Amino acid sequence: MKAVVFNDFCSLGNCALKVNISVLMQNGIEIIPIATKFFSAHMGYSNYLSFENKNFKEIVLNILENEKSIDLVYIGFVDSKEQLEIIKYFLKKSNPNKIILDPILGDNGKKYLGVNDEQVQIYREFIKFSDIITPNLTEAMLLSDCNKEFVNIEREDVLEMAKNLQNIGSKEVIIKGLNEGENLITLYFDGSFTWNKIKKVETKICGTGDAFSSLISVCAINDKNLKNSISKIQDLLYYTICNKELNDGLNEINTEFLKLDYN
To answer: Rounded distance, CA 210 to CA 216, Å?
Structure first.
């Protein structure tokens, strides 16, 4: 099984393509990574540099020419209309079985530095082609034009966002990160809905969203029922985080043991 992953590459820090590669490979999936942008370090660091992939189009077209069997396409960080059009062309020509969209826009009620309305519109365009979309709560609010205060969001609001995103085009919607006391709530929506909860880890762990969406991709490419897989994925991530030595500064996900057991 082969997956093409469009995402950014960070030299310093464990997130984005580094996490995608680690998780997919240890779950038996051949990954074809394509960097949409290069960062000296991820955004959890106080300062970083970013660089365009000037050969993005040539790389994509070369992969189309040389690889005729692609089972899944994962779309992460994209911030240019030119890349949007190139990826749309790639999707049309490669015709993958599944398309996963992990929009990278913000967290905890705030946009990431540099995110603008154009990037939100780029992801809305991608939703039209997606089978599964995995935004966190902030990203779902941005993509569905929810104007309610982040701290006041309730389950009925999240469900309304999911319906909105499905109306745009995605068949299955997974929205992560609703705070309810000591728990974090995840919604799975495919017309009907299921709520999943996991105990909250107060320390922010960079790369967790990348790991979650990568594990969703593992389930999707193996035709596993996503509704039944979310709790398994959350338990695996929670176990991984709780068995990691956390510090007061920057913490990152440990991807060494993120292998799904379907038994």
So the answer is: 10
